[in-house]
Every structure is written in C-alpha cells, then in structure tokens.
Amino acid sequence: MKLVIEKLPDLRALYIKQLRSLLSAEEEILRGLPILAELATDTQLKQALESHLKETEIQAQRLRGILTQIAGEAQPLTSRAVMALIDEAEDMVQGCSHDAVRDAALIASAQRIEHYEIAAYGAVGHFARVLGRESDVGALGQTIDEEEHADRLLTSVAARVNPAAKKAA
Ligand SMILES: [Fe+2]
How far apart are CA 150 and CA 51, in angstroms? Predict the structure, then answer.
C-alpha cells in the first residue's frame, strides 16, 4: 500500500491532522466497544464499558466541533493504531474460554486503548495551548478527565477480576 504523505508545514496543520486521527479513533471505539461490552461477564465491567460508550459519543462530537471551527469540516483520518488495538482485543478475548479470564483480557485491552487516548489527547491538548486555542484546551481537558476516570474504574474492576481469573481451571 503506497501512502500519500500529507505536508504538515506548521503546528496548526499537525494539530488538525492529529484531531482528525483522534476522531477516527473515537469512531473505531464506538464500533468496537459494544462488541467488547457484549462479551463481558462481570456486571461492573459491562456497565463501565457501556457508560464509556456514551462518553465516547460525546467525545467524538466534541472533536467534530473543534475540527469544524478550525478547519471548516470534521473529516476523520483513519487511525490504524486504534483499529489494530481493537482487532487485537477481539482476537485475544475470543481465545479465553473462562469468563473471568475473558474479563481480565477485556480490561487489559480496554486499558491499552485508554492509555493510547490519554497520550494522544495530552499531546493535542498541549498543541491547543501553544496555539492559543483556549476553548479547545477546555474541551480536550474534559475528554482527558473522562478517559482517566474510565481507566481508574477499569483498574478497580481488575482488582477483583484478576484474582478470580487466577483461580480459573
Ligand atoms: Fe475516548
């Protein structure tokens, strides 16, 4: 596959490109999260994934708003990284025959995605600050807070699920 390399002459262009990639990431997560939530056995885990799905819809909407303001349109740019993380999660989870082990795999996979998002939003949030786009800084910061909250919630579910997975035959 030959890729066309888009010219990025300045930080503003890089900021827009990364926002477009994040929009694609959120759209991929909107596609993948219901599949992962459906496979969860632990009630709290299922709820955590489902409630993050609702937050993800808002996060995608926030990105569309920011992109429309700065670029006049909100065109996603395929995030191959998140697509691969979700594919890998689906493969990993399908290999688990015990409920608790599957839940442990779901948590580990979901946290990989969360950490990717936290890193990516952290970078664009700083770009927004340097570019003097204060309202974007606020909106992106809100998304980071939600991602971090989701991550902490998954850590607390793992504290219960992982020991149960250890006992799996
Ligand atoms: Fe997100």
Answer: 9
